[in-house]
Amino acid sequence: MAVKGMNLWSVCCLVLYFVAAVLAGRDFYKILGVSKSASVRDIKKAYRKLALQLHPDRNPDDPTAADKFADLGSAYEVLSDEGKRKQYDAYGEDGLKEGHHGSHSDIFSSFFGDFGFTFGGNRQGQQDRNIPRGNDIVLDLEVTLEEVYSGNFVEVVRNKPVAKEAPGKRKCNCRQEMRTTQLGPGRFQMSQEVVCDECPNIKLVNEERTLEVEIEQGVRDETEYPFIGEGEPHIDGEPGDLRFRIKVMKHPVFERRGDDLYTNVTISLVEALVGFEMDITHLDGHKVHIVRDKITKPGARLWKKGEGLPNFDNNNIRGSLIVSFDVEFPEIQLNDNQKEGVRGILKQASVQKVYNGLQGY
Amino acid sequence: MVLIYALRGFIKSFLVVLLWSNCEGRESEFNYVTCGSLVKLLNTRHNVRLHSHDVKYGSGSGQQSVTGVESADDANSYWRIRGKPNGTCQRGVPIQCGQAIRITHMTTGRNLHTHHFSSPLSNNQEVSAFGENGEGDDLDVWRVQCDGSIWERDKMVRFKHVGTDAFLSVTGEQYGNPIRGQREVHGMGTANHNNYWKAMEGVFIQPSQEPLRHHHEEL
């Protein structure tokens, strides 16, 4: 009996050790699905995408959902902080001794707002219609084309008034009611009276928190990113939303049409005739190489597939870069000899075609 | 057996405690008003917030009125801090003391504006909200006056109009219906404690890093 007990004990010890080892060593990079060299932005992007998928409210049938979501929050918290990430990289989860700066719901709500999921992320609760809402706030967020190409995160500090309970009562739901008073037998008087209910007293206290707005790759102009509950409070109800409206700014080099980018290049007459080689620096710094060895006509267009913007719905699909060429003529006057030389080289007969070039334009 | 389960539970909670102990309240270290931010401006002398709405002045220019309100939860008190027309004001960059800015009303898209008209209650210089979709004219530009080099959120600043040199002020006169209780906001020539304003509630944009420069090789 004792021997069996001891074997059981050692098995339990082994299991205990295994459990401890497993607990001590979560692979945060794997949880987020990022490489060890991922940037903070990659980590934020990964968290935001996975948090939406793994939130327990989204997975009511999965018993492990809460744990997975908690793991995700821990992974984000460690890897998004430079100091903690260094410690984690060196010593693993065991080596982390510092504390956290917010609960998992705090991290989630900094990406989606306070009520990110309570109403299905879209305020579709049944009680929704009867609860008064505070005002919405819309902030135009100006983004550059570089940010649309590579993506970015904008941190904002939201300082907002929050309704807090205060001692005492206040009047609420005030309304006009008709009151009938009897002045005497058969004589009545109707008057209007303001009638109020009694509600707990509310005072407004300013609170501050950080929100993370993602500029997703390929985002379209006027796209809105709502943060539920981060708008203005309502004394008798719930707060409105804060919405960031993306405004893509004009770019000096590239013009956006959907997922395609348009740009213009002026070349010299010599280059147009004899060919040339050049690089166009793209929005993220990489170079697009262009080689021409034939004649390039003014207005000619070069189509570079895959060099446009990433598609918003599928970042792996890219539009094209369309390069239009125009030609700059040299500021010289040719003497008679040079004119003969040009006629000899180009061997082009005189054209002199007269036509209406403004048809319909 | 029970002892084993208890021990496992203890180790698990010990590890969790080790990881999540020392809760630090995270403070925002960034205390400046930046370009593109949304802000409510409080007049510190009269405790009212700069406000506008779709109500026009009945006198003076007849443009959209600008007032001071006591409530702290009205979305019509939000103003967006933007650069001057044709100027560069990069998103998230702190506003310098002395910098020329435009202050655009969030809900109506009109700019804080003043001109040589008399204000209805005190006969000072009328301050209105002017323009469409954030575009008005040259009289929409104000200079932020503060001590130090950057507009800090918890410091009082003055707004001096570029063009008329008037300071954005409140001296306490109150309107009657339909905007009962709201205070008159006007321009005054002298700098005094009536023209101090402080950034209160809002959405303060932090500076972003430049998007990553990738150097992938295409085969």
Structure, described:
With 361 residues, chain A is α+β, with helices and mostly antiparallel strands. In chain A, 28% of the residues lie in helices and 32% in strands. Chain A has 9 helices and 11 strands. Chain A has helices spanning 2-24, 28-32, 40-54, 65-79, 82-91, 104-112, 145-150, 269-274, 336-346; strands at 137-143, 152-184, 187-215, 224-227, 242-248, 255-257, 260-268, 276-281, 287-292, 301-304, 321-328. In chain A, the strands form 4 sheets. A 4-stranded mixed beta sheet of chain A has the order 6-7-11-10. Chain A is flat. With 219 residues, chain B is mostly beta strands. Helix content of chain B is 9%, strand content 36%. Chain B is built from 1 helix and 12 strands; from the N terminus they run H-E-E-E-E-E-E-E-E-E-E-E-E. In chain B, strands 1, 2, 3, 4, 5, 6, 7, 8, 9, 10, 11 and 12 form a 12-stranded antiparallel beta sheet that branches. Chain B is elongated, with a radius of gyration of 24 Å. Mean pLDDT of chain B is 87; it is low at 17-28 and 215-219. At the A-B interface, helix 1, strand 1, helix 7, strand 2 and strand 3 of A face helix 1 and strand 12 of B. Strand 2 (152-184) of chain A pairs antiparallel with strand 12 (197-205) of chain B. Chain B: This is MIR domain-containing protein. Chain B: It is found in: Secreted. Chain B: Residues 1-25 form the signal peptide. Chain B: InterPro entries: MIR_dom_sf, MIR_motif.
Distance between the termini of chain A: 101 Å
Number of helices of chain B: 1
> What is the residue-mean pLDDT of chain B, rounded to a whole number?
87
The number of distinct β-strands of chain B equals: 12
Please outline the helices and strands:
The complex is a heterodimer of chains A (361) and B (219).
Chain A: H1 2-24, H2 28-32, H3 40-54, H4 65-79, H5 82-91, H6 104-112, E1 137-143, H7 145-150, E2 152-184, E3 187-215, E4 224-227, E5 242-248, E6 255-257, E7 260-268, H8 269-274, E8 276-281, E9 287-292, E10 301-304, E11 321-328, H9 336-346
Parallel strand pairs in A: 1-5, 7-11
Antiparallel strand pairs in A: 2-3, 4-5, 6-7, 8-9, 10-11
Helix pairs in contact in A: 3-4, 4-6
Chain B: H1 2-20, E1 38-43, E2 48-56, E3 64-69, E4 79-83, E5 100-105, E6 111-118, E7 125-130, E8 141-145, E9 158-161, E10 167-174, E11 183-188, E12 197-205
Antiparallel strand pairs in B: 1-2, 1-4, 1-12, 2-3, 3-7, 3-11, 4-5, 5-8, 6-7, 7-11, 8-9, 10-11
